[in-house]
């Protein structure tokens, strides 16, 4: 199974040859496509051949392009990810509000529990107890917005009262958003490869967001990124740390694996829960190792 995240940091030409990614820069390097799950292109001084992009799409390899500020700007997704595309899309369109709201409730419960656990780990006891009380108040579709209330308490407790998620130029936010983008990319890849549409979410429905569904499913995994950023000794090196995000060791269904594989298991369990109208079928990540 693919396990490598390839990061291109300097001027190069990327080509395809005999099932390999060929990177022609100051040195020539080759990586077998079967080993790659994601390619992150951090520089704009890159030339990519069309044949390489087509081969990457066939294998479901995610390609993330960064802008001149080294921030993720856009990604490549294949049109067709499964031979059952039509069947899956019809299923997705027919998911009822009842099951979508129930699945969203479970997702938000798990997200806030993850935030609570982060606060508990760093001795923010009062705030952790407040988030725990929010968990018991979450309703269908989170109509009382416990997620929003929890976020305000959580980020101020974790990163300081002066910290605001609205400050896009803050070094912590830059690092968080970089990690969240890698997460989103991994979810989008699994959604597309399973034959579903990334545009049709169960809660997110922004007409300008092509990744509403991925934005929904990634929510319980955000606290992992938060913990990694909080533990960084040097925020200026956040890319080097977060580029290895998908290889972080985690536990799901009582078994240790890497985050990339856990995302696949969790996402497929979400599809089963929605199709079978049973939110109890969701298999969440249980723990992680930093």
Give a brief description:
The protein has ten helices and eleven strands. The protein is an alpha/beta fold.
Provide a descriptive summary of the structure in words.
It is a single chain. With 290 residues, this protein is of the alpha/beta class. It folds into 2 domains: 4-76, Ribosomal Protein L15, Chain: K, domain 2, CATH 3.100.10.20; 85-289, Four Helix Bundle (Hemerythrin (Met), subunit A). The protein is 45% helix and 18% strand. The chain has 10 helices and 11 strands. The strands form 3 sheets. Strands 1-5-7-8 form a 4-stranded mixed β-sheet, with helices on both faces. It has a 4-stranded mixed β-sheet with strand order 4-3-2-6. A 3-stranded antiparallel β-sheet has the order 10-9-11, with helices on one face. A hairpin with a 3-residue loop joins strand 3 (20-24) and strand 4 (28-32). It is globular and about 55 Å long. The two termini are 22 Å apart. The relative contact order is 0.12. The mean pLDDT is 94.
């Amino acid at each position: 199974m693919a396990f490598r995240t390839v990061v291109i940091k300097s001027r190069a030409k990327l080509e395809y040859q005999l099932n390999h990614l060929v990177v022609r820069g100051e040195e020539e390097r080759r990586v077998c496509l079967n080993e790659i799950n994601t390619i992150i292109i951090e520089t704009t001084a890159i030339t990519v051949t069309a044949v390489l992009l087509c081969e990457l799409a066939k294998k479901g390899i995610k390609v993330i392009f960064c802008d001149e500020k080294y921030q993720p700007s856009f990604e490549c997704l294949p049109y067709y990810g499964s031979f059952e595309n039509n069947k899956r899309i019809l299923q997705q369109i027919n998911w009822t509000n009842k099951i979508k709201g129930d699945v969203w409730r479970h997702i938000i419960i798990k997200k806030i529990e993850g935030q609570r656990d982060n606060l508990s780990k760093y001795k923010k006891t009062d705030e952790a107890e407040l988030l725990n009380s929010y968990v018991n108040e979450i309703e269908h579709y989170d109509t009382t917005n416990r997620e929003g209330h929890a976020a305000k308490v959580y980020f101020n407790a974790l990163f300081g009262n002066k910290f605001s998620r609205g400050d896009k130029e803050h070094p912590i936010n830059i690092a968080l958003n970089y990690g969240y983008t890698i997460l989103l990319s991994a979810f989008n890849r699994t959604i597309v490869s399973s034959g579903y549409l990334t545009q049709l979410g169960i809660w997110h429905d922004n007409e300008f967001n092509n990744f509403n569904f991925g934005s929904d499913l990634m929510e319980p995994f955000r606290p992992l990124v938060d913990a990694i950023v909080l533990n960084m000794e040097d925020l200026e090196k956040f890319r080097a740390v977060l580029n290895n995000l998908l290889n972080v060791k985690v536990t799901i269904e009582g078994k240790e694996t890497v985050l990339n594989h856990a995302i696949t298991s969790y996402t497929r369990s979400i599809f089963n829960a929605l199709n079978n109208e049973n939110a109890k079928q969701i298999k969440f990540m249980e723990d992680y190792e930093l």
